[in-house]
């Protein structure tokens, strides 16, 4: 079966994702990448309303994307399509595409409501990367409520570029760890107060990096008096910083709601650092909480647990090792992508879908 994965990632991340998709192929499934970059800015179609306007106006970039997409479907004899990141395909357009269609929702619950749920009627199957939807419903229950027959939890996992796959476990844990705490991520307003609290408390022991525009840095310093100017790092630098870190902090978008499932959740332990993450209520759906990762509910608990694990080296390393082993066993990107082939086969059988050429 030939399965096309559509995604929208730039630069090194885009190359790494394409390589990971191809590497998932085996004798049963052939995985084909389609990167949506280069046609139009994804921020132009982040919401279903924005995409609808572009589609009705027949935006040249969108139409060119669709044409190249259709050409690839025919050239590669594609049987199923998995659409991830910001979905660029209007439901009215998808009616013309006669392949098995899967929507892979990798967003936080709020974004899921904005740009995934409006499209569900155009797909045969949905994958979701977070088990959380709201305080009342988990994501599986929400998908069932929408009438989606085929829905499966598919974690994002760790790309090979997220860690050094050439190193053994012993080599990973023999590395010198001279950074106490690290957080690397882009600006999100709901995360800033927690990050500022960590910076003020741990000072130089806390390494805070990421892509922040000048206005974001000014906001952080004027609003919170942080005296901190977090700067960008490359993928290679991000990897090395986590290899040097004792503890990696994870904060999800939608921090005032339960959430769990970002890329950081997998690449922190893949680099041998102890992960302290929010989303504690659902943590056991992905890891064995307390033995593979450590959860926290608020910044006070986070600070207390950082202090504890920095002063209990053997306990910290054992949990870090357990987390590393879990990622290597279950959460490597190519392995996860390969497993989606079986999920798609099962979904096809449930609705009696007959595989045919596009």
Tell me which CATH architecture of the largest domain applies here. Answer: 3-Layer(aba) Sandwich
Strand content: 5-15%
Mean of pLDDT: 93
The biggest sheet amounts to: 6 strands, parallel
Determine the fraction of residues in helical runs and give it as a percent range.
40-55%
- Computed over alpha carbons, the radius of gyration is 21 Å
Q: What's the total number of strands?
A: 11
By helix and strand content, what is the structural category? alpha/beta
Give the end-to-end Cα distance, rounded to a whole number of Å.
12 Å
Question: Counting H and I runs of at least 4 residues, what is the number of helices?
Answer: 14
Shape: globular
Number of domains: 2
What is the H/E string?
A: EHEHHEHEHEHEHEHEHHEHEEHHH
CATH domain class name of the largest domain = Alpha Beta
The oligomeric state is: single chain
* Poorly predicted runs: none
CATH topology call of the largest domain: Rossmann fold
Write the topology of this structure.
Layout: E1 2-7, H1 11-23, E2 30-35, H2 48-56, H3 60-75, E3 80-83, H4 91-94, E4 100-105, H5 109-115, E5 125-128, H6 139-145, E6 151-153, H7 169-173, E7 179-184, H8 189-202, E8 206-209, H9 214-224, H10 235-244, E9 245-250, H11 264-270, E10 274-277, E11 294-295, H12 299-310, H13 313-330, H14 333-350
Parallel strand pairs: 1-2, 1-3, 3-4, 4-5, 5-6, 7-8, 7-9, 9-10, 10-11
Helix pairs in contact: 1-14, 11-13
């Amino acid at each position: 079966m030939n399965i096309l994965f559509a995604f929208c990632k730039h630069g090194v991340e885009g190359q790494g994702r394409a390589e990971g998709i191809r590497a998932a192929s085996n004798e049963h499934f052939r995985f084909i990448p389609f990167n949506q970059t280069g046609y139009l800015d994804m921020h132009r179609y982040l919401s279903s309303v924005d995409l609808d306007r572009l589609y009705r106006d027949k935006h040249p970039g969108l139409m060119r994307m669709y044409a190249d997409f259709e050409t690839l479907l025919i050239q590669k004899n594609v049987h199923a399509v998995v659409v991830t990141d910001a979905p660029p395909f209007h439901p009215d357009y998808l009616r013309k595409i006669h392949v098995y269609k899967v929507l892979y929702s990798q967003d936080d619950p709020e974004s899921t409501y904005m740009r995934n749920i409006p499209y569900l009627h155009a797909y045969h199957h949905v994958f979701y990367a977070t088990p959380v939807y709201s305080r009342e419903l988990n994501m599986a229950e929400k998908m069932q409520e929408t009438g989606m027959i085929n829905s499966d939890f598919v974690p994002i996992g760790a790309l090979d570029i997220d860690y050094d796959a050439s190193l053994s476990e012993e080599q990973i844990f023999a590395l010198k760890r001279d950074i106490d705490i690290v957080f690397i991520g882009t600006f999100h307003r709901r995360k800033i107060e927690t990050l500022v609290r960590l910076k003020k408390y741990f000072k130089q022991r806390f390494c805070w990096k990421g892509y922040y525009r000048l206005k974001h840095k000014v906001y952080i310093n004027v609003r919170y008096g942080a005296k901190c100017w977090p700067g960008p790092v490359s993928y290679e630098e991000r990897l090395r910083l986590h290899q040097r870190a004792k503890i990696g902090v994870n904060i999800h978008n939608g921090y005032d709601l339960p959430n769990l499932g970002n890329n950081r959740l997998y690449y922190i332990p893949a680099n041998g650092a102890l992960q302290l993450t929010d989303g504690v209520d659902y943590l056991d759906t992905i890891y064995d909480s307390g033995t593979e990762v450590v959860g926290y509910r608020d910044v006070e608990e986070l600070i207390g647990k950082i202090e504890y694990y920095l002063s209990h080296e053997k306990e910290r390393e054992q949990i870090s090792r357990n987390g590393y082993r879990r990622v290597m066993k279950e959460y490597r990107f190519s392995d996860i992508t390969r497993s989606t082939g079986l999920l798609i086969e099962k979904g096809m059988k449930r609705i009696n879908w007959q595989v045919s050429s596009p």
